[in-house]
Amino acid sequence: MARIGQQFGDYCLIDSIANGGTAKVYLGQHVHDPCHKVAIKILKMGIDDPAIERIFLHEVKILTQLQHPNIIRIIAYGVQDTEPYIIMERAQGGDLGQIPQQSLTPKKICAYARQIANALHYAHQHHKIVHSDLKPQNVFVGQDGTLMVGDFGYARVLQSTQQHSSTPQGWTWAYTAPEQIDEERFGKPSPASDQYALGMHQHMNKTPSSLCKRVPDLSSKVQKVVFKALAKQPSERHQDIVTFAAELEKALSPAIAPAKRSKLSLQWWSAMVVLFGLTVWLISVMLTTNPNIYMVLFILLIIFLLVFYTISYTPARSNKIEAMIKQALTSPSRSGARFKRLDTTMQCDIAERLLAFYESAQKERRFADCAAIEQVIINWLLALQAEEKYPQLPYTLHDAICNTQQPKRQRAVLTLLAAISGQLRSAPYNICPLLISSLLALCGLDAIGEYQPATQLSVSQDLDVADLALIVLSFMGQRGPAGLLLQELRQYFKQYPQQLGDLARYSLECGTLITPTFVPVAEENYQQYEAAISRWIQLRGSYKRTQITPQNIKLCIDIHQTLLDCAEEAKYPMALHICTMLQQASEQATGAPKPWQEIWQNYMKKQLDTGGYVSYQQAALLWTMLFLEERDLQPLADHVLTDYHSSQTPNERYSQRFLSLLSFDWRDLRYLIGLRDWRDWRDLRYLRYLLLTKDVTEPACIALSSQGCAPDIDLLTILMGRLLQLQENDETGPVVEAEVHMLANAALRCLTIGSIDAEIRESALDVIRYLPMRTESEVQFVWQVVSRATERNIYDACAYALGRARPKDNKAWEALSQGQTSQVKEIRQAVASVLQRRK
Question: In this structure, what CATH number is given to the domain that contains residue 804?
Fold first, then answer.
């Protein structure tokens, strides 16, 4: 059995949270960041059969694809000592069953039902996953009050690993739909099963006799909506779970009073009266002075009609658009068909308004609103037919990503496309051909297949735009560059089979399977992929790198060929670099051949020097994949540092971004969850040791002090990475403390800028949040920051740092205890938490 202190993956158990019939849940923390807390579920069923273990891992792998703000995210999973475990993000507000029923107002019930329905609908529509065990205890409350559905598909995982058991373990009978108990009578479980469970939330484990008896003042409309969701036959329930939530909200909402004429409307009509009087006066004057009476009358009439149309029609149209958008956000499943029936001008206006809302929600970090808008956009695009004549939404999206005059809107729309592209891979309307050329131009990438970079766009100087554009291209799947490149790869290796043999030999020599393709998703393809990887693991353990035989190479070629055959996408654009390096190695002079490693490293150095931003990042990434030894990483580190210390060159900026990515990895991979190639990063501690030094942070601090009102977010991230490295290496002493003060003061100077961007402010606050708290001097420095602070967010950042405190001696503990008398509530709470932990 699991025990407190035991490590699972990168997390260790620190406390027990709950104990159920099939699993026990623990509170866990990251081994390198004690403030990063998670929930770790240890299933009580032991797995000692490799076949059952594969089933478990595959089932949970499917669940990791669920990425929605109202779904608990799975961070990691595995089987350790026959104990299957799942590591999930932790909801700090408890579960829905712990909320007193008396505190749930109709408005809050509607909001909760909508959030749960959106999560379930997302799983139903885009991943074909039914929850199967929805109940209040599986719906959790986040820190900001957002609901998150947990244990998604958990019953499915349990059933899949119970071999031939006919007992449906993992279900809670009070919330179980009839079809989950008797498939012969009611049919197979479906999304309607989750609708039944959501309807049962109204009864909270009591017999569903009559809602009106339990709540006398409850409308009969509400009872009708809920009982429809509880119909025994799935076909008699609501069309889908989002429809149920919308009908419930409609039934709970009070009758809408007749609209009163607004004060603004009265002002419009007053203006019309004045305008009409002025027109009559002008006509009377012109009749006496101008002989061309009819022309004067005609012109004045046109002016009057135009002004009347503008004043009376525009507000009404705007109000209609607002109402339609509000309705779409409430019931996103029906929005696509509604918008599609509108005239093209109205469609364009609604699309523009949605993008404006998304931009403001991103800026204000209202991620639940972002998710709602994303769902509306997805449904709208899914409603379009393959040969749509006037698709206004796709063209509005395209215009936004090409509009370099509005960089914030451009970044917001690229973020939206990055979030939804993966869910449009099988949509009838293929948006990829419209976007690919422009995205290639923004990234500075060459032509792929029939697509050329758009000539009207130049390479984006905004590295965030370039990153996002590359992510969108990567997420397009088989319809995008990754699918096109896969076809070229298969043809290339068919034409040059010797280079596939070279790739196999290089893989054996470096001990890394150098594959230019991604893991497939389709079940049949994944099984072939899994079998090929198993063969590689067996091969890797059976040969010596210094004694590679022809048989070893033949087996490795077969593995590579299988991976090519079952692949669905190539690693774009990394696979292009792999093919070029293979070709260069095969074309070298036969007299004095160079090692392939030297040829590949020279190619990647050239990409670092002249290849542009995307090539710079791809080359550095590829280097870290292939050359893991410390002696091989040193040339890369030297190259990056040379670029970093160069002045006013593009490579200086590219190296800063690369260093900031290294700093991100110290904290949590959630910051880069959208980057497809991140799976290939290895343990880069030695590379960080070479790069994240005082020689790097000193110029960063100087640069930040001279950048005025627009500090560089990458430089702030580098400062935070250096702080984490100092703590990881347990470096202390006067020199280290002086450097920490320098880093913190640089971040604090950025926070004094009045018009600073919200994202930059968060990066500066991150530096404060990760200040070390190990020695008396380090604690005293934080007290100095608190005493000088005037803003609430700096107090909160200091409280976070205090919560991470790890005092080394009694003097440090005594310095920390001074916070018990602080006037700031958050500071007192953080200190109390640390002191309690000491006991």
Answer: 1.25.10
Residue 341 lies in a domain: yes
User: Hey, what are 679's tokens?
Assistant: 């799976």
Question: Can you give the pLDDT at residue 84?
Answer: 87
> Domain check: are 350 and 301 in the same one?
no
**Domains of the chain: total:** 5
What does the pLDDT average to over 101-130? 73
Mean pLDDT of 612-634: 89
pLDDT score recorded for residue 741: 94
Residue 563 lies in a domain: yes
Q: Examine residue 606 and state whether it is found in any structural domain, yes or no.
A: no
| Amino acid symbol at 54 | R
Tell which residue, 781, 765, 763, has the closest CA to residue 773. Answer: 781
Position 829, amino acid: Q
- Is residue 687 a contact partner of residue 633, using CB atoms and an 8 Å limit? yes
DSSP conformation class of 45:
S
What is the CATH number for 48?
Answer: 3.30.200.20
Whether residues 11 and 66 fall in one domain: yes
Residue 153 and residue 295 share a domain: no
Q: Do residues 347 and 389 share a domain?
A: yes
User: Does 392 reside within a domain?
Assistant: yes
Tell me the CA end-to-end span of the chain in Å, nearest whole number.
26
Q: CA neighbours within 13 Å on the CB side: how many for 6?
A: 13
Domain span at residue 788 reads 773-839
End position of a domain, from candidates 166, 193, 222: 166
Q: Which residue has the tokens 């807390």?
A: 37
Q: Lowest-pLDDT range, 43-47, 488-492, 710-714, 811-815?
A: 43-47
Q: How many CB atoms lie within 10 A of CB 216?
A: 7
CA angle 464–467–472, rounded 5-degree value = 120
Tell me, what's the pLDDT at 230?
A: 65
**DSSP 8-state secondary structure symbol assigned to residue 411:** H
pLDDT tens for residues 66-94?
777 788 888 888 888 888 889 988 887 77
Question: HSE (CB half, 13 Å, CA atoms) of 158?
Answer: 22
- Which tokens hold the place of 578? 């792999």
d(CA 777, CA 522): 56
Looking at the structure, tell me whether residues 359 and 461 fall in a common domain: yes
Residue ending a domain, among 527, 554, 587, is 587
Say if residue 827's pLDDT is above 60: yes
DSSP string of 142-159? -TTS-EEE-STTHHHHHH
The encoded tokens of residue 831 equal 């200190």
Q: Give the whole-angstrom CA distance, residue 504 versus residue 554.
A: 8
Q: Tell me the Ramachandran region of residue 709: left when phi exceeds 0, alpha when psi lies from -120 to 50, beta otherwise.
A: alpha
Cut 0.70: pTM above it: no
CA-derived radius of gyration, the chain: 31
Residue 51, C-beta contacts closer than 8 angstroms, at least 6 positions apart? none
Residues 295 and 367 in one domain: no
Q: Provide the annotated active-site residues.
A: 133
Same domain, 545 and 534: yes
**Cα(432)–Cα(816) distance, integer angstroms:** 56
- Taking CA atoms, 308 is separated from 264, 279, 284, 294, in Å, by 15, 12, 20, 21
Tell the burial category of 106 from Cβ atoms under 10 Å away from its Cβ (0-12, 13-18, 19+).
middle
Q: In what order do the strands lie in the sheet with 83-89?
A: 7-8, 11-19, 23-30, 37-43, 83-89, 74-80
- Please give the distance of CA 82 from its chain centroid, rounded to a whole number: 32
Q: How far apart are CA 68 and CA 54, in angstroms?
A: 26
In this structure, the answer to whether residues 379 and 287 fall within a common structural domain is no
Is the pLDDT assigned to residue 561 strictly greater than 70?
yes
* Segment of 37-41, 335-339, 599-603, 830-834 carrying the highest mean pLDDT: 599-603
Q: Please check whether residue 381 is in contact with residue 393, taking contact to mean a CB–CB distance below 8 angstroms.
A: yes
829, with CB counted inside 10 A (0-12, 13-18, 19+), is: middle
